[in-house]
Protein backbone atom coordinates (compact mmCIF):
# COMPACT_ATOMS: atom_id res chain seq x y z
CA UNK A 1 0.00 0.00 0.00
CA UNK A 2 2.86 2.34 0.75
CA UNK A 3 4.27 1.81 -2.74
CA UNK A 4 0.95 2.92 -4.23
CA UNK A 5 0.73 6.09 -2.13
CA UNK A 6 4.39 7.12 -2.11
CA UNK A 7 4.87 10.26 -4.18
CA UNK A 8 3.06 9.18 -7.31
CA UNK A 9 3.75 12.59 -8.95
CA UNK A 10 7.54 12.21 -8.74
CA UNK A 11 7.75 9.20 -11.08
CA UNK A 12 9.38 10.10 -14.39
CA UNK A 13 9.49 13.88 -13.83
CA UNK A 14 12.03 16.31 -12.45
CA UNK A 15 11.51 18.58 -9.43
CA UNK A 16 11.28 21.70 -11.60
CA UNK A 17 8.44 20.33 -13.73
CA UNK A 18 6.34 19.20 -10.73
CA UNK A 19 3.73 21.51 -9.15
CA UNK A 20 4.82 23.04 -5.84
CA UNK A 21 1.95 21.59 -3.84
CA UNK A 22 2.86 18.05 -4.94
CA UNK A 23 6.54 18.25 -4.01
CA UNK A 24 7.79 15.70 -1.47
CA UNK A 25 9.95 17.22 1.27
CA UNK A 26 10.81 13.93 3.02
CA UNK A 27 10.69 10.21 2.45
CA UNK A 28 7.82 9.78 4.89
CA UNK A 29 5.54 12.24 3.05
CA UNK A 30 2.76 10.74 0.97
CA UNK A 31 0.69 12.73 -1.47
CA UNK A 32 -2.91 11.88 -2.33
CA UNK A 33 -3.44 10.19 -5.70
CA UNK A 34 -6.81 10.78 -7.40
CA UNK A 35 -9.67 8.30 -6.93
CA UNK A 36 -8.04 6.42 -4.05
CA UNK A 37 -10.25 7.32 -1.09
CA UNK A 38 -10.50 3.71 0.09
CA UNK A 39 -6.72 3.32 0.13
CA UNK A 40 -6.31 6.64 1.96
CA UNK A 41 -8.81 5.62 4.63
CA UNK A 42 -7.00 2.34 5.24
CA UNK A 43 -3.63 4.11 5.34
CA UNK A 44 -4.92 6.70 7.84
CA UNK A 45 -6.28 3.98 10.11
CA UNK A 46 -3.00 2.06 9.99
CA UNK A 47 -0.90 5.15 10.69
CA UNK A 48 0.96 4.88 7.38
CA UNK A 49 -0.19 8.23 5.97
CA UNK A 50 0.27 11.79 7.17
CA UNK A 51 0.13 15.18 5.46
CA UNK A 52 3.03 17.61 5.50
CA UNK A 53 2.49 21.37 5.99
CA UNK A 54 4.71 22.82 3.26
CA UNK A 55 4.15 26.53 3.98
CA UNK A 56 4.00 26.49 7.79
CA UNK A 57 6.99 26.93 10.07
CA UNK A 58 5.12 25.93 13.25
CA UNK A 59 4.06 22.52 14.48
CA UNK A 60 0.47 21.37 14.65
CA UNK A 61 0.34 21.94 18.42
CA UNK A 62 1.35 25.60 18.11
CA UNK A 63 -0.90 28.37 16.88
CA UNK A 64 -0.15 30.12 13.62
CA UNK A 65 0.45 33.86 13.25
CA UNK A 66 -3.05 34.42 11.91
CA UNK A 67 -4.63 32.53 14.79
CA UNK A 68 -2.60 34.51 17.31
CA UNK A 69 -3.63 37.84 15.75
CA UNK A 70 -7.32 36.87 15.74
CA UNK A 71 -7.07 35.79 19.36
CA UNK A 72 -8.31 32.27 18.81
CA UNK A 73 -6.10 30.74 21.48
CA UNK A 74 -7.28 32.07 24.83
CA UNK A 75 -6.67 30.55 28.23
CA UNK A 76 -9.83 29.48 30.02
CA UNK A 77 -10.13 31.20 33.39
CA UNK A 78 -11.82 29.30 36.18
CA UNK A 79 -14.74 31.07 37.80
CA UNK A 80 -14.07 31.89 41.44
CA UNK A 81 -17.30 31.25 43.34
CA UNK A 82 -16.15 32.94 46.57
CA UNK A 83 -13.75 35.75 45.62
CA UNK A 84 -13.83 37.49 49.01
CA UNK A 85 -12.24 34.47 50.72
CA UNK A 86 -9.11 34.86 48.55
CA UNK A 87 -8.57 31.12 48.29
CA UNK A 88 -9.00 30.45 52.02
CA UNK A 89 -11.54 27.91 53.29
CA UNK A 90 -12.90 30.32 55.94
CA UNK A 91 -12.56 33.95 56.93
CA UNK A 92 -13.30 35.68 60.22
CA UNK A 93 -15.46 38.77 60.24
CA UNK A 94 -17.65 41.09 62.31
CA UNK A 95 -21.40 41.50 61.76
CA UNK A 96 -22.32 45.07 60.89
CA UNK A 97 -26.01 44.64 60.01
CA UNK A 98 -28.72 41.99 60.41
CA UNK A 99 -31.79 42.00 58.18
CA UNK A 100 -34.15 39.75 56.21
CA UNK A 101 -34.67 39.27 52.48
CA UNK A 102 -37.28 37.50 50.37
CA UNK A 103 -36.32 34.65 48.03
CA UNK A 104 -37.08 34.62 44.34
CA UNK A 105 -40.04 32.83 42.78
CA UNK A 106 -41.57 30.34 43.25
CA UNK A 107 -40.35 30.26 46.88
CA UNK A 108 -41.90 32.48 49.50
CA UNK A 109 -40.25 32.99 52.90
CA UNK A 110 -38.24 35.40 55.03
CA UNK A 111 -34.52 34.59 54.99
CA UNK A 112 -32.17 35.91 57.66
CA UNK A 113 -28.93 37.39 56.35
CA UNK A 114 -26.08 39.40 57.82
CA UNK A 115 -23.68 41.94 56.39
CA UNK A 116 -20.21 40.95 57.55
CA UNK A 117 -16.95 42.88 57.31
CA UNK A 118 -14.12 40.39 56.88
CA UNK A 119 -10.60 40.58 58.27
CA UNK A 120 -9.22 41.46 54.82
CA UNK A 121 -11.40 44.59 54.67
CA UNK A 122 -14.04 43.28 52.27
CA UNK A 123 -17.75 43.43 53.11
CA UNK A 124 -20.03 40.54 52.09
CA UNK A 125 -23.59 39.43 52.72
CA UNK A 126 -23.81 35.96 54.28
CA UNK A 127 -26.75 33.66 54.90
CA UNK A 128 -27.77 32.64 58.44
CA UNK A 129 -28.88 29.02 58.23
CA UNK A 130 -30.87 27.05 60.77
CA UNK A 131 -33.82 27.90 62.99
CA UNK A 132 -33.12 30.79 65.35
CA UNK A 133 -29.85 32.57 66.01
CA UNK A 134 -28.14 34.67 68.67
CA UNK A 135 -26.27 37.05 66.38
CA UNK A 136 -26.15 40.74 67.14
CA UNK A 137 -24.27 43.71 65.81
CA UNK A 138 -20.48 43.42 66.36
CA UNK A 139 -20.71 39.62 66.74
CA UNK A 140 -17.58 37.81 65.55
CA UNK A 141 -18.42 35.03 63.09
CA UNK A 142 -16.70 32.64 60.70
CA UNK A 143 -17.61 32.78 57.00
CA UNK A 144 -17.36 29.95 54.48
CA UNK A 145 -18.22 29.71 50.80
CA UNK A 146 -21.57 28.37 49.65
CA UNK A 147 -24.33 29.96 47.64
CA UNK A 148 -28.02 30.02 48.49
CA UNK A 149 -30.13 28.80 45.60
CA UNK A 150 -33.16 31.07 46.05
CA UNK A 151 -31.33 34.23 47.20
CA UNK A 152 -29.74 36.37 44.51
CA UNK A 153 -26.13 37.42 45.06
CA UNK A 154 -25.48 35.43 48.26
CA UNK A 155 -22.26 33.44 47.93
CA UNK A 156 -21.34 32.92 51.59
CA UNK A 157 -22.69 31.25 54.73
CA UNK A 158 -22.02 31.76 58.42
CA UNK A 159 -20.70 28.67 60.19
CA UNK A 160 -22.83 27.71 63.17
CA UNK A 161 -21.17 26.66 66.40
CA UNK A 162 -18.04 28.75 65.70
CA UNK A 163 -16.93 31.86 67.63
CA UNK A 164 -19.96 33.96 68.71
CA UNK A 165 -22.51 32.07 66.60
CA UNK A 166 -24.20 29.31 68.64
CA UNK A 167 -25.44 26.09 67.09
CA UNK A 168 -29.02 25.00 66.61
CA UNK A 169 -30.41 23.70 69.89
CA UNK A 170 -32.15 20.34 69.68
CA UNK A 171 -31.00 19.51 66.17
CA UNK A 172 -31.19 15.77 65.49
CA UNK A 173 -30.17 15.47 61.82
CA UNK A 174 -27.16 17.06 60.09
CA UNK A 175 -25.82 18.22 63.46
CA UNK A 176 -22.31 18.80 62.13
CA UNK A 177 -23.60 21.39 59.63
CA UNK A 178 -25.59 23.31 62.25
CA UNK A 179 -23.26 23.01 65.26
CA UNK A 180 -25.79 21.14 67.36
CA UNK A 181 -23.41 18.73 69.03
CA UNK A 182 -24.54 15.40 70.48
CA UNK A 183 -28.23 14.98 71.22
CA UNK A 184 -29.96 12.85 73.88
CA UNK A 185 -33.53 11.72 73.41
CA UNK A 186 -34.03 11.04 77.12
CA UNK A 187 -31.63 12.38 79.72
CA UNK A 188 -33.20 10.65 82.69
CA UNK A 189 -33.74 7.24 81.09
CA UNK A 190 -30.16 6.80 79.88
CA UNK A 191 -27.54 6.30 82.64
CA UNK A 192 -24.64 6.86 80.21
CA UNK A 193 -25.29 10.59 79.59
CA UNK A 194 -25.53 13.65 81.80
CA UNK A 195 -27.30 16.92 81.04
CA UNK A 196 -25.38 20.18 80.77
CA UNK A 197 -26.73 23.26 82.54
CA UNK A 198 -26.21 25.79 79.71
CA UNK A 199 -27.05 23.86 76.53
CA UNK A 200 -28.92 20.71 75.63
CA UNK A 201 -25.70 18.89 74.90
CA UNK A 202 -24.71 15.43 76.05
CA UNK A 203 -21.37 14.07 77.08
CA UNK A 204 -20.66 10.45 77.97
CA UNK A 205 -20.45 9.85 81.70
CA UNK A 206 -17.95 7.59 83.38
CA UNK A 207 -19.26 4.05 83.46
CA UNK A 208 -18.20 2.03 86.51
CA UNK A 209 -17.93 -1.65 85.73
CA UNK A 210 -18.80 -3.77 88.77
CA UNK A 211 -16.78 -6.94 89.09
CA UNK A 212 -18.39 -10.15 90.34
CA UNK A 213 -17.93 -11.06 93.98
CA UNK A 214 -15.91 -14.16 93.07
CA UNK A 215 -13.21 -12.06 91.33
CA UNK A 216 -13.18 -9.32 93.99
From TrEMBL:
Entry GO MF terms: structural constituent of ribosome
Gene3D superfamilies: Nucleic acid-binding proteins
Keyword check for Ribonucleoprotein: yes
Keywords for the protein's UniProt record, in alphabetical order: Ribonucleoprotein, Ribosomal protein
InterPro entries given in the database record: NA-bd_OB-fold, Ribosomal_uS12, Ribosomal_uS12_bac
GO CC terms: small ribosomal subunit
Superkingdom field: Eukaryota
NCBIfam families on file: rpsL_bact (TIGR00981)
Sequence similarity: Belongs to the universal ribosomal protein uS12 family.
Name of the protein in its database record: 30S ribosomal protein S12
Organism of origin: Puccinia striiformis
Amino acid sequence: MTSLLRCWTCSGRTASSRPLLQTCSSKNTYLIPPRSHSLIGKALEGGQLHFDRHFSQTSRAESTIGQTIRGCRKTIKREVKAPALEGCPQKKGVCSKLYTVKPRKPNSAVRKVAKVKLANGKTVVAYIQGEGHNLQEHSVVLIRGGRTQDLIGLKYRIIRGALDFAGVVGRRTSRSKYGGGAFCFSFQASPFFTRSDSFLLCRPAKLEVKKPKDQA
